[in-house]
């Protein structure tokens, strides 16, 4: 097989472009076995769940180093393979290992290009098991397309199994995780993301930048690194907006034409109505917790509840102003004192923020519905 030989200090490895069909025949899937609870027990696997059956059949060993394959992650990868068009399916290299020493024969005058012998056994996958597992199912579902797929691979040979384990640890302990708020900024530009995510990202972007937004420049798009006063992370606003969009997609299609600017107008007017009623505490984050992240998330959840109020939505649609929301949230005015920073966590006692958001959401909702 044609390969590029790469030398770095005392190490030598190879870059290879493998046909997907060929590569899938040459790799073996493994995972580290700990105890029975971490396996997908055969008796609990649905006969219709091909991914679970595949994972359950993977070799497990105390000498292994790979994590147990994640069923949901594999399904997401397969979905990505099916939807991506212009972008490459597997842009990053898959790392392969064999303890056999392979023979490299230079091609002509090129010192780094040549032919590499094939191992007698199967490759161990240092990095890329989920991508290859996804490719396995993509091949089964789309046999007519798999012939067009090549997989970029980096191959290490002639080393002990400990070398592969060490490489696995280095790769999975030194990478930098992309900030979630940064990802939200990019959703609009990613062709394979869901329409709901793109839509929610556009709405959040408008909430951040529009001059008439009650949250203008108060959304932290830098994931905690901003030096200016911010009220809530962009990723947190996005998560809540995505829930609203997903839950009411049909209504938004019929009433808002699934237009981000029209959805933004709805959220903006709702928040303006809340701001009018809660003027005493809105933005006063030194003394109150009303425009802190925990309460802002609860506010968006209340909007999620209010969208089902057809009269309210009809009034807003006719007036296109914040006034209908002022009327609906007027009962919140007497609650201002409950959001004082002093004693806030005792008044809304919870084991964590998730539970606290639920409690605030319920408190606000109860005040409206009586």
Quote the distance from N terminus to C terminus: 74 Å
What is the helix fraction of residues, given as a range? 40-55%
Largest sheet: 8 strands, mixed
| SSE-based structural type | alpha/beta
Number of strands: 12
* Strand-residue proportion: 5-15%
Please work out how many helical segments DSSP would assign. Answer: 15
Label the overall shape: elongated
Order of helices and strands: EEHEEHEHEEEEHEHHHEEHHHHHHHH
Total separate domains: 2
Summarize the model shown.
The chain is built from 15 helices and 12 strands. It has 370 residues and is an alpha/beta fold. It folds into 2 domains: 2-174, no CATH class; 180-369, no CATH class.
Describe the model:
The chain has 370 residues and is α/β, with parallel strands linked by helices. It has two domains: 2-174, no CATH class; 180-369, no CATH class. It contains 15 helices and twelve strands. The protein has helices at residues 20-26, 50-56, 71-83, 129-141, 161-174, 180-186, 195-209, 234-247, 249-255, 260-277, 293-306, 310-319, 323-329, 344-347, 353-369; strands spanning 2-8, 11-19, 27-28, 30-32, 59-61, 94-98, 104-106, 113-116, 123-127, 150-157, 219-220, 232-233. The strands form three sheets. An eight-stranded mixed sheet has the order 3-9-6-10-2-1-8-7. Strands 4-5 form a two-stranded parallel ribbon. Strand 4, helix 2 and strand 5 form a beta-alpha-beta unit. Helix 6 crosses helix 8 (234-247), helix 8 runs parallel beside helix 11 (293-306) and helix 12 packs antiparallel against helix 13 (323-329). The longest helix is centred in the C-terminal third of the chain and has 18 residues, at 260-277. The protein is elongated and about 80 Å long.
